[in-house]
Write a structure and sequence with these properties.
Layout lengths: L1 H5 L6 H4 L4 H19 L5 H25 L23 H21 L19 H10 L2
Helix pairs in contact: 3-4, 3-5, 4-5
């Protein structure tokens, strides 16, 4: 997932059939959210905290995509209906921030688990007792 999240959104325009960065962020976050159970395989509570933060960030992006389309139909069906993409509102700044936090958290989890603590981190992981965890969780709670 880290590799996928680090790909420029423009690389996915053709794949998703639309040149909309917010939609690309939504699709990637949705895939992450739907596949989280695959990655949780340890009893370490820090895993739970970090993966819960990933799920919350992904859910926030999904909610923002819903908000972009709710004026068309408020059932959520229009989140992926490309026929109405021209009518979607612009991507909120919080989507970009949430996506960046997902990339940072995936990086830190990769450093903690795969690279056994060796590498540059953003300090947003409980696994590594990151100094920016509070900042990340404040964003999740308050959107800023």
């Amino acid at each position: 997932m880290l590799v996928e999240f680090n790909r420029p959104p423009e690389d996915s325009f053709e794949e998703f059939g639309i040149e909309d960065v917010g939609f690309v962020y939504y699709k990637k976050a949705d895939e992450l959210y739907r596949s989280m159970h695959v990655y949780i395989n340890d009893k370490n509570e820090s895993y739970d905290e970090d993966f819960a933060n990933l799920r919350m960030l992904a859910a926030g992006i999904s909610l923002n995509q819903f908000a972009r389309t709710a004026h068309i139909e408020n059932t959520g069906k229009e989140k992926t209906n490309l026929e109405y993409a021209k009518d979607w509102t612009s991507m909120p700044e919080e989507t970009e921030k949430a996506f960046d936090y997902i990339k940072q958290l995936l990086n830190d989890i990769d450093i903690a688990i795969i690279k056994v603590g060796k590498g540059t981190t953003f300090g947003v992981s409980h696994l590594l007792n990151g100094g920016n965890v509070n900042k990340l969780e404040s964003f999740i709670s308050h959107g800023s």
